[in-house]
């Protein structure tokens, strides 16, 4: 990656490597960074990092920045210094974000922290309060990264097996873990993305995704650099406030490639007004990836219909599958062909089979996530480790040059997860924990093993239940639900719980809430044969999400068990209501020294 940036600086020094759109009143103000400036500032960061390091210079470097171009120069500065970078969210408020970054600090044995000057004092105090007195805290930025330091830079000696950065998982089902992405992994996956997306030299990409998340970092930030292109970016908050800004970015900068989880496309359909979309020209968009959470066929169709008059090509919407442990991309649809959809018999899917839908029985529509590029994909029975034939649902196993080296400082978990062996003796596979099936080499992802609901011998997917609830009435907020099961210890029986947000304007008097809860129970009894489901109704914003928009169902289960949900109304099955409160609630995170904006 360092070579790619240096080549860009040599060949087209004045070309914009990055354009960042800052909020400026009602509009957006552009800040540009050329390839020459990017190279200069990255060399300056690297030089200062080398000179200021205390003790072991091989310890990772934690990057704590708001989503701006300063993060990009600091990240690449670590590469230029031969140091392992750790992208992380700025802990600018107490709560889960601070707790997560504190966990990363401890787990990774961080040697240095890079941030902006205005955050340095508060982060330094936080490091001292955390007992990390030997961790150096440096500030970077346009005023700090001067040319004098850059002139002292010398290229590091790097091997393909060296860890380029640690991608900490967002923790949708478990505690975050540091994925060791090597320089060879990164180069392999960048080539896989370029091949799968048919990315042209000099591409213009545009995104609002977090820079510390794998899709935003590797797909939308580093891929354009890999091919000498330009990355146009804005903050996730700017997008959430006004989703039309994303589409306006595509129009203004003639963006050819973009990406978002499913909810981003859904948000545009619901919240971009006719006035905002008037005059938009999206014909430039070749690739609009949809991944990081279940891809819904109805969302793809609704987005194409809503923006059909903008020149949007339906083929541009590309379902894909990827994860940090494979650096990023595993598979994607063909950008020159329509994506595949498969409507299957719902009862057969509950038995882990893809069977054609029947007119006399419920069905489910699955979206194909394309074919793998540089990665071998197997579908394996997670219990017997037997490789399953086409059309059977099992755990997705991966092997190839993009598969990461393992989890940082977790040798046992790495051996168990990254060195899996099939029943017939094939070795060296990564176990994703995701469920899916291959049919004519197309990958269909169906869910997560840890989130599967097993009811009377049937395998039910929580996202199917969540979607059914949210589509059943205008009062329910789209994307604002979490379905999980809790166990009744007396009978050892699993009971389904639905936590669902209401829309901000929904009627919340006791009578209407009781009616809504009863309607959810009736719907799930009728559609999924689930009697006596427990229903918890909450306000908007209660459902916890990862940085990529995945619902944190495991965390929601724990909050429910701890009695920590702000409930508007609940209708619980007797066995669920009688469960004793959790005996080991999660501790409150410390807020000592937390930096504030």
Explained architecture:
The chain is 32% helix and 25% strand. It is α/β, with parallel strands linked by helices and 597 residues long. Among the domains are: 1-14 and 35-155, Rossmann fold; 338-451, Luciferase, domain 3 (Roll); 454-577, ANL, C-terminal domain (GMP Synthetase, Chain A, domain 3), CATH 3.30.300. Helix 1 (2-11) packs across helix 2 and helix 7 (183-197) packs across helix 8. The longest helix has 19 residues, at 510-528. Mean pLDDT is 90; it is low at 583-597.
Protein topology:
Layout lengths: L1 H10 L4 E9 L2 E8 H18 L8 E5 L3 H13 L3 E5 L6 H13 L3 E4 L1 H13 L6 E4 L7 H4 L12 E6 L9 E5 H15 L6 E4 L6 H13 L3 E4 L2 H6 L2 H10 L3 E4 L1 H10 L2 H4 L9 E4 L6 H10 L10 E6 L6 E4 L8 E5 H5 L12 E5 L3 E2 L3 E5 L13 E6 L11 H8 L11 E10 L2 E7 L4 E3 L2 E3 L1 H9 L5 E13 L4 E10 L7 H19 L5 E5 L14 H9 L5 E5 L2 H4 L20
Helix pairs in contact: 1-2, 2-3, 7-8, 11-13
Protein name: Fatty acyl-AMP ligase
GO molecular function, one term: adenylyltransferase activity
Pfam family, one: AMP-binding
């Amino acid at each position: 990656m360092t070579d790619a940036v240096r080549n860009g600086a040599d060949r087209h020094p004045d070309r914009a490597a990055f354009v960042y759109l800052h909020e400026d009143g009602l509009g957006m103000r552009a800040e540009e960074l050329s390839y020459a400036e990017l190279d200069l500032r990255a060399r300056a960061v690297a030089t200062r990092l080398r000179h200021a390091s205390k003790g072991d210079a091989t310890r990772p470097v934690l990057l704590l920045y708001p989503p701006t171009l300063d993060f990009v120069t600091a990240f690449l500065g670590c590469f230029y210094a031969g140091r392992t970078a750790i992208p992380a969210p700025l802990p600018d408020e107490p709560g889960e974000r601070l707790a997560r970054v504190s966990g990363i600090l401890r787990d990774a044995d961080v040697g240095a922290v890079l941030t902006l000057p205005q955050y340095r004092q508060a982060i330094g105090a936080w490091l001292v309060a955390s007992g990390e007195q030997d961790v150096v805290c440096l500030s970077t930025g346009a005023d700090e990264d001067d040319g004098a330091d850059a002139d002292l830079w010398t290229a590091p000696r790097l091997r393909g097996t060296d860890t380029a950065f640690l991608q900490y998982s967002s923790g949708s089902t478990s505690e975050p873990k540091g994925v060791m992405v090597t320089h060879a992994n990164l180069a392999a996956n960048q080539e896989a993305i370029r091949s799968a997306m048919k990315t042209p030299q000099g591409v213009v990409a545009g995104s609002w995704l977090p820079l510390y998340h794998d899709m935003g970092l590797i797909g939308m930030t580093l891929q354009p650099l890999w091919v000498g292109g330009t990355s146009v970016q804005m903050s996730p908050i700017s997008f959430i406030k006004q989703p039309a800004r994303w589409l306006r970015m595509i129009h203004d900068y003639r963006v050819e490639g973009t990406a978002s989880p499913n909810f981003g496309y859904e948000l545009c359909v619901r919240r971009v007004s006719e006035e905002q979309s008037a005059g938009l020209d999206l014909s430039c968009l070749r690739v609009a990836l949809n991944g990081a959470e279940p891809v819904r066929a109805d969302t793809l169709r609704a987005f194409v219909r809503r923006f059909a008059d903008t020149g949007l090509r339906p083929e541009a919407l590309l379902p894909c599958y990827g994860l940090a442990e494979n650096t990023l991309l595993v598979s994607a649809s063909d950008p020159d062909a329509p994506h595949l959809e498969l409507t299957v018999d719902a009862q057969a899917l509950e038995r882990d089979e893809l069977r054609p839908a029947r007119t006399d029985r419920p069905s489910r529509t699955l979206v194909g996530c394309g074919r793998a590029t540089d990665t071998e994909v197997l579908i394996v029975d997670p219990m017997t480790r037997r490789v399953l034939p086409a059309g059977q649902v099992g755990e997705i196993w991966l092997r190839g040059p993009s598969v990461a080296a393992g989890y940082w400082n977790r040798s046992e978990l790495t051996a168990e997860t990254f060195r899996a062996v099939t029943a017939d003796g094939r070795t060296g596979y990564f176990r994703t924990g995701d469920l899916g099936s291959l049919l004519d080499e197309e990958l269909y992802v169906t869910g997560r093993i840890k989130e599967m609901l097993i009811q009377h011998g049937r395998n039910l997917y929580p996202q199917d239940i969540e979607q059914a609830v949210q589509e059943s009435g205008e009062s329910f907020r789209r994307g604002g639900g979490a379905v999980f099961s809790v166990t009744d210890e007396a009978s050892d029986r699993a009971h389904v719980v639905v936590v669902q947000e209401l829309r901000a304007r929904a009627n919340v008097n006791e009578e209407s809430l009781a009616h809504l809860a009863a309607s959810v129970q009736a719907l799930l009894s009728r559609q999924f044969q689930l009697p006596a489901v427990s229903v918890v109704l909450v306000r908007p914003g209660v459902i916890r999400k990862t940085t990529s928009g995945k619902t944190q169902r495991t965390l929601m289960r724990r909050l429910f068990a701890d009695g920590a949900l702000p409930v508007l109304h609940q209708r619980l099955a007797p066995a669920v209501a009688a469960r004793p409160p959790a005996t080991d609630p999660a501790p409150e995170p410390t807020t000592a020294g937390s930096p504030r904006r």
